[in-house]
Write the structure tokens for this entry.
Amino acid sequence: MEQSRYHAECVNEDEHFEPTKKKNFNGTTLVYVTPWNNRGYDLAKIFSCKFDYVSPVWFNIKGTPTGYLIEGDHNVDTEWIGEVKGNECPESSVNPKIVPRYLFDGWNGDHISRIISNKNNERQKLANQILASCQKHSFDGIVLEGGSLIQIEYRRMLIPFYKLLGSELRKAGFKFVLVQGPKREHSASFTPEEHTTLSEDVDFFSLMTYDYSNNQPGPNSPVSWMTSSVLSLLSPEQRENSAMTGKILMGIPFYGYHFVIGGQPKHVLGRDYLQLLKKIKPEIEWEESSKEHKVSFTSDGKENHVYYPSLKFIQERLEMAQSLGTGISIWEIGQGLDYFFDLL
């Protein structure tokens, strides 16, 4: 896409916004909504017919000296849930399900070891707490981010708990989505054998294929790394098995990064990116190796690099997900631009 056209596409994005109810992506689509980006709540209602699962980030599971505490009831918005689920979707036949995210928040070694050792039946107790929370609010299931940031050796020792929780939730008619970290330094979150074991009790895996470059200037989600992260979870035979590939929801970010040489990177949201384009009017280049758009400029004598999604960025990843047979998970819709949803 030529520079002037892409620049106009971004700056005039409101003119491209199509509030359609047609779902274009054939795979499973899960989207996250966060309280700190309220625009996401509105977008979830407007485009609900494009989403199979909507995951509001509402709950934290905190460790205590004697057990675990689930916090977040005050975030639950039953009116919003009704609006998201109440939309008629004649063009897509989608019935969006609400699966809030539950996060292991601030866990230390003791909190983890109690689940691993299962002393005093801690696994069952915590599973019962999560199930009771789901039942209390009549959710359709949950997303659990329960160890993607924990050291890998501990992460794998939590597999028995994940299987128990998934079994309990699914027996009660709820969906269970487990968050998985991407491939890092030649090591995946789980081996294909471990992933297969988990698949018996997990409906979907939300794979966090973003934040690739961390503190160094570079792309957020290069396609080769995203592909490698997906394939690292599957045996060669499973890569041709749609029942296995379809459980993986490849992560697509709706945010970007602003790198300043010599400084700390900052997250870039859609509104920030538009302001930058209007103010700086920089050249925008397409990185073919990562398949991401990049903006580079100098400000106050310092070199700046900004990576932020575009329609081409999203389309490349939707096609890749289709080719791999996976679904997608989007973090998070309040950070993007409204016209991104035209492709979903």
Observations:
- Residues 22 and 91 are 5 Å apart (CA to CA).
- The chain has twelve helices and 15 strands.
